[in-house]
Amino acid sequence: MDPSKIKEKIVRFRILIIGRANAGKTTILKRVCNTRENPEIFNSAGEKIDVDVLKESRGRGEHDINNEMVFRKNPGFIFHDSRGFEAGGESEYDKVNTFIAARSEEGDIKDRIHTIWYCIPMDEASRAFTEAELKFFSRCDTGSIPVIVIFTKFDALYDVAFARLRKEGKSRTDAKALAPKRAEEAFANGSQLKFLYHSKDIRRPPKCHVCLPDMDKDDADCGLLIERTAETLDSEALQQLFVSTQQTNLELCVRYAVERALEKFVVSDEKISSEDAITRLGRWFPHISIVRLLILVRARAMLIQAIAHCSQRGVSVLILVRARAMLIQAIAHCSQIVSVLILVRARAMLIQAIAHCSQRVSVLILVRARAMLIQAIAHCSQYNVTHVW
Q1: Please, which contacts does 320-323 make with residues 24 or more away whose CB atoms are closer than 8 Å?
Q2: Which residue ranges form the domains of the chain, and what is each CATH number?
Q3: SS3 149
Q4: What is the pLDDT of residues 97-110, one digit of tens each?
Q5: Nearest residue to 276 via CA among 333, 336, 337
Q6: Helix (H) or strand (E) segment spanning residue 349
C-alpha cells in the first residue's frame, strides 16, 4: 500500500491488549493516549455502549473482545481488551485465539489487528508465568501480527533490588539511586526472559519486550513502548499510521521523517518540489496542532545527528541546509500558531546545525541558508516575519 494513502485506507491503528486483571492495562492505554479520562466503549456495529450496562455485564462475567475502546483525547487508536483471559481456561483461550485468527483474515486492513500488547505484571504475587500465558506463547498463531510483551509494575523489582543493596551495606541514598539499574540487570539475566525466548515450551515467542515502571505517576514515560511498537511493524504504511497517531513521543515522529523521507531527498537524484517535500515529511506527524519552542529544540537535536551522519558521506552543506529548512517547514505546516520567539530560535538553530557539520562555513552559505529559512517560515506564517531578522 502506498503510505501516502494510509489515512484514507486504514484510518485508525488497532491494538489488542492482553493481560491479567490489575496488570495496569488501562493505565498504560491512558498514558499512550495522553489522557486521564476513561475510554468510551463501542460494540462491533459502532454503537456506543452505556457504562452502566457494561458494568452489569462485567458483573455477570460477560465480556465481548470485539468491543472497541476509544479515548476521546486520541481517537486514532482502537483498543480491544481480552478481559478474563487470565483465568487460563480453554474457553477463554479459544475466544482470544478465534478473535486473532478472524481479524488476521479480514479483507479490509483497517479491521485487522495491527499489534498485540501482552501485559505481565511484575509485582511480587504475579512474577511467574500463568497457564494462560503459557498457552498463548506456545499455541496461539498470531501470524504476521507483532506481539510485544509489556512487563508492567516493573518498579516492584526496584524494591527487591533496594533491599539487596541495603544488605550489601549501601546507604539508603545510594541503594535508592542504584536500585533501578540493578533491577534491570538482574531481570535481563533472569529466568523470565530466558524462559520466554529460549524455552522449548515457548514455540511462538514475542517480537520483543519492554519494562514499564511507575506508570501511575504523573511523569510516567511510555516512550519505549511506542518506539518498540513502531520498530516491530513490517509495513511502512502501518509505521506511518502508528507514528503519526501517537502523541507522546515527538522525537519518534522526527526520526522517522528524517529516516524515511528526508534522507531520501538528500541522497536521491529525484527532483522533488518543496510542496511535495513538505507533504511527505508532514505525514509522519500530522497530529501536531501547535508548534512550540520545545518541539523545535527536540527536532534540532535529532536532525543535527542526521546531518552529521550525512556529512560524513560527503553530502554538501548546502543540501543539508535545504533539508533542514524543509523539515522546519514541514513541522510548521501542521501548526496553527507560529510565535516570533520560535522564528528567532529557528534561525539560531539553523546556524548551529550548519556549524556542527562544517568547519568552514562561508558567509555566502549562511546568507543563502537564511534566505531559505525565511522562505520556509513565511510559507506557513500568517504575518510578515522579516522584522525578526
Answers
A1: 320/266, 320/353, 320/354, 320/357, 321/350, 321/354, 321/365, 321/368, 321/369, 321/372, 322/372, 323/262, 323/265, 323/266
A2: 3-245 (3.40.50.300), 250-388 (no CATH)
A3: strand
A4: 999 999 988 888 88
A5: 333
A6: helix 340-357
- Cα(101)–Cα(142) distance, integer angstroms: 7
Classify residue 297 by its DSSP letter: H
* Residue at 17: amino acid letter: I
Q: What is the pTM of this model?
A: 0.75
**For residues 317 and 357, what is the distance between their CA atoms, to the nearest angstrom?**
8
Alpha-carbon span 386 to 389, nearest angstrom: 6
Question: Which positions ≥6 away from 312 have C-beta within 8 Å?
Answer: none
Interval 21-73: pLDDT, tens: 888 999 999 999 989 999 999 988 888 988 776 766 665 556 789 999 999 99
Supply φ then ψ for residue 152, to 5 degrees.
Answer: -85, 165
Q: Grid coordinates standing for 318?
A: 548546502
Angle at CA of residue 29, ends 108 and 217, nearest 5°:
165
C-alpha cell at 30: 491512558
Given the C-alpha cell 516512550, which residue does it identify? 223
